[in-house]
Design goal:
By secondary structure, this protein is mostly helical. The chain has a single domain (39-351), classed as Farnesyl Diphosphate Synthase. The protein has helices at 6-13, 40-44, 46-59, 65-75, 82-93, 100-122, 134-138, 140-159, 164-187, 195-219, 225-252, 255-258, 264-268, 273-281, 284-296, 302-311, 314-332, 340-353; strands at residues 127-128, 131-132. The chain has a two-stranded antiparallel sheet with strand order 1-2. Helix 14 packs across helix 17 (314-332). The structure holds 3-methylbut-3-enyl trihydrogen diphosphate (2 copies) and magnesium ion (MG) (2 copies). One 3-methylbut-3-enyl trihydrogen diphosphate (IPE) binds next to helix 6 and helix 10.
Length: 357
């Protein structure tokens, strides 16, 4: 099985980030936008995803009106549903024929939605999925509490699968996600964090749920341990790539397409990879400007800082890091039997880095 370590792999595959340590890095084939395949995995999984949607709506029900109101508010705004898709495609690629994958796909989407409700409170964000965030609409307290409702509903649902291994994977994932958000809080306004510190945060807060989703797709097919590990590694690398692109889009994306405010990371003083690279490569004056922006959060000199981030090639470096992760993800699929579903998983890794929303 191709071994995967997000931290060390990035160090070796991103000469732009580590010009000093860039030793014998491997020249890998790059995914290029000119060869973009049609996202047929959406068509392939449409029936399964419709089932998942039904489970989601059925399981949102609560006797408490405000719980219904807020949970429907965020869920009905949509979302890409990448994590349930990942779980479904892996399960299908490994020959799953039952219905358990629908319930579990809804579980991972609930956990994801709960993290968003909490994250928007912590990040003080006011736009999500093209509409006002739940915290902006209903307040912080209600958002956090409904996030808790979604987490606990997800746990009720996973218990109903009656598989200890499923509970083990999801209990571990939710715990690590919470650690990731706290780690990120500790890194806020700190311009001196290392690339490794940053990577640890994204591995915990984002890649872990992708990993769990992919792993569960394998667990419910009773896959061999090495196949389960390959799927988990695929999910982890995909999740890392996904967050790297999210951090990139915060600088060069469009609010209209993303449905989120761009520039929030800088405004908040969140030291993501584009800023870390720009500080490494910029002049002393540029570095100082970014340092102050991270320490204080920046609104006034935002345009200048975005310019430095672009001029130093920090966005390209972030994209390269994401591409390296997507390549790692693809390599992990070698252990899966050839099928339309495996092909779909290849497309999913391509789409996760060539996206604008
Ligand atoms: C947003 O996730 C949080 C990150 C991990 C970047 P998505 O981009 O999957 O959000 P939705 O579900 O599509 O809105
Ligand atoms: C991802 O980080 C948050 C979670 C994994 C919950 P971000 O804070 O960058 O996500 P967005 O940009 O708000 O969606
Ligand atoms: Mg956020
Ligand atoms: Mg973001």
């Amino acid at each position: 099985m191709p071994s995967y370590n997000p931290t060390s792999s990035l160090l070796w595959q991103c000469p732009f980030i580590w010009p000093i340590r860039a030793g014998p890095f491997v020249c890998r084939p790059r995914v290029t936008s000119t060869s973009a395949p049609i996202a047929s995995y959406r068509t392939l999984s449409a029936t399964d995803m419709a089932e998942v949607d039904q489970v989601i709506h059925r399981r949102l029900a609560s006797k408490v009106a405000l719980v219904n109101q807020i949970s429907h508010y965020i869920v009905s705004a949509g979302g890409k549903r990448v994590r349930p898709m990942l779980l479904l495609l892996i399960a299908r690629a490994l020959g799953h024929g039952g219905t358990q994958h629908h319930e579990l796909a809804a579980v991972v989407e609930f956990i994801h939605t709960a993290t968003l409700l909490h994250d928007d409170v912590v990040d003080e964000s006011n736009l999500r999925r093209g509409r006002q965030t739940a915290n902006a609409m209903f307040g912080n307290a209600a958002s956090v509490l409904v996030g808790d409702f979604l987490y606990s509903r997800a746990f009720q649902m996973m218990v109903s699968t009656n598989r200890l291994r499923v509970m083990d994977v999801l209990a571990e994932a939710t715990n690590v996600i919470a650690e990731g958000e706290v780690l990120q809080l500790m890194n806020m306004h700190d311009p001196d964090i290392s690339v490794d510190d940053y990577l640890r945060v994204i591995e915990y807060k984002t890649a872990k749920l992708f990993e769990a989703s992919a792993r569960l797709g394998a667990v419910i097919t009773d896959a061999a341990p090495e196949v389960e590990e390959a799927c988990a590694s695929y999910g982890r690398a995909l999740g890392t790539a996904f967050q790297l692109i999210d951090d990139l889009l915060d600088y060069e994306g469009s609010t209209a397409e993303l449905g989120k405010n761009i520039g929030d990371d800088l405004r908040e003083g969140k030291p993501t990879l584009p800023l870390l690279v720009a500080m490494q490569r910029g002049t002393a004056a540029q570095r100082e400007m970014i340092r102050q922006a991270v320490i204080n959060g920046e609104v006034e000199r935002m345009a200048q800082i975005v310019e430095i981030v672009k001029e130093t090639g920090a966005l390209e470096a972030t994209r390269e890091a994401a591409q390296a992760q997507a390549e790692q993800a693809k390599a992990c699929l070698a252990l899966l039997p050839e099928s339309v579903y495996r092909q779909a998983l290849l497309e999913l890794s391509f789409d996760s880095i060539h996206r604008s929303s």
